[in-house]
């Protein structure tokens, strides 16, 4: 009797997810496609190890750490693709592909989405508005930045994410202090453009949108990093949404993204009514974005990203996606000062009709300031009849949610 058929393709997966996003086997037919994993130890339990070609636990996901392990696995199995869905693994996966001769996105292509000056150069060259910006070096001082860009300005890590290390400077002395605190080789500086911040999320296939949505941030990611709540509301269909989607398509064309997931942020200028490109990630948005889109639209952004990265057909037909009347989410930051222990919190499901899902910390949980967008003071997903109603509900969540914490001491 013949045994099971050999898989038609084998893929190597870099994993740093410890939740459902690590269940990659959901995205492929495991009788046809076989997966091997390089994973962090505390993220291994979510993997389908029983059906894996190999599961190797590594100390970290740095390229230098992974290369010998990936080479050994490639010699054993012969991979047809390598994928890392996290922002922090995109370039590592590309470098491994190049080193091992595996097809897929090249390091140069991925760097256009990881390096902020590179991405703005590409978008600007296509005739699209980007903030005036300057790459820093050891000789870049406050006076040069003010002369070339003006004030206010934003200092950003060239390859950062989640607003880590971002600083807004509105005056010369503030700018000088910010410059003194960063490594210029790792930073760039850009003009601050006043206005609303939008985010456009979706998947491209064959140079067009397989799925796309557009949303308005309530507050900013930078303010969230400083300890303020962050929300988002899906835009109603209308002129602004259509403009944002068209502008995003032009930006993605400039970056040659034909197939892949994206999270693109842009500004709607308060003074000029123009749209201004901010940055784009070559992966689904974080926070509640993948879950909200699955719940409201029936689109699995993570699954679509996984398959697009490997050159596989989409998970779903766009005709099967649902239309959402309105939706959004709210993130409550970690309680401060760090570390802090939760004494009480007020769940809102059942109290606010628009809140349909929430994650709130347990009483006694301790926060240390390193939770990112996941291990935080509370997260809420909302649905409603449209943008205005959900926007009001987002503000209600921010107003009504109470999180009480106390300093947590080492000896406690």
Automatic annotation (TrEMBL):
| Entry-linked InterPro entries | ATP-dep_AA_Ligase, ATP-grasp, ATP_grasp_subdomain_1
Q: Which UniProt keywords apply?
A: ATP-binding, Ligase, Nucleotide-binding
Q: Does the keyword Nucleotide-binding apply?
A: yes
The ATP-grasp domain sits at 120-310
Q: Does the keyword ATP-binding apply?
A: yes
Identify the domain of life.
Bacteria
The protein depicted here goes by the name Acetyl-CoA carboxylase biotin carboxylase subunit family protein
């Amino acid at each position: 009797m013949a045994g099971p058929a050999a898989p038609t393709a084998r893929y190597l997966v870099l994993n740093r997810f410890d939740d459902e996003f690590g269940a990659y086997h959901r995205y492929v037919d495991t009788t046809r496609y076989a997966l091997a994993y390089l994973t962090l130890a505390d993220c291994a339990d979510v993997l389908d190890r029983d059906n894996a070609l190999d599961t190797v636990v590594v100390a970290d996901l740095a390229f230098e750490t992974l290369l010998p392990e990936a080479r050994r696995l490639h010699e054993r199995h012969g991979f047809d693709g390598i994928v890392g869905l996290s922002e922090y693994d995109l370039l590592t996966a590309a470098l491994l592909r190049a080193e091992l001769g595996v097809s897929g996105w090249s390091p140069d292509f991925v760097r256009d989405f990881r390096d902020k000056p590179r991405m703005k150069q590409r978008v600007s060259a296509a005739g699209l508005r980007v903030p005036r910006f300057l790459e820093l070096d050891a000789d870049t001082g406050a006076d040069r930045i003010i002369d070339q860009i003006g004030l206010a300005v934003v200092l950003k890590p060239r390859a950062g994410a989640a607003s880590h290390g971002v600083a807004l400077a509105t005056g010369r002395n503030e700018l000088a202090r910010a410059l003194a605190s960063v490594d210029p080789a790792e930073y760039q500086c850009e003009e601050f453009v006043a206005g609303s911040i939008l985010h456009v999320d979706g998947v491209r296939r064959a140079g067009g949108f397989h799925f796309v949505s557009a949303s308005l941030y309530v507050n900013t990611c930078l303010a969230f990093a400083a300890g303020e709540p962050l929300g988002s509301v899906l835009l109603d269909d209308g002129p602004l949404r259509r403009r944002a989607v068209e502008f995003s398509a032009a930006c993605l064309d400039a970056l040659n993204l034909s197939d892949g997931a994206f999270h693109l942020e842009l500004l709607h200028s308060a003074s000029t009514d123009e749209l201004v490109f901010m940055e784009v990630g070559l992966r689904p948005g974080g926070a509640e974005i993948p879950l909200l889109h699955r719940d409201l639209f029936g689109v699995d952004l993570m699954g679509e990203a996984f398959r697009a990265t490997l050159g596989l057909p989409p998970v779903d037909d766009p005709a099967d996606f649902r239309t959402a009347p309105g939706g959004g989410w709210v993130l409550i930051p970690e309680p401060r000062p760090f570390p802090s222990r939760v004494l009480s919190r007020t769940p809102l499901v059942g109290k606010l009709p628009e809140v349909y899902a929430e994650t709130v910390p347990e009483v006694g949980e301790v926060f240390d300031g390193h939770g990112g967008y996941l291990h935080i003071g509370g997260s809420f997903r909302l649905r409603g009849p449209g943008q205005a109603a959900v926007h009001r509900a987002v503000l209600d969540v921010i107003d009504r949610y109470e999180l009480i914490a106390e300093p947590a001491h080492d000896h406690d």
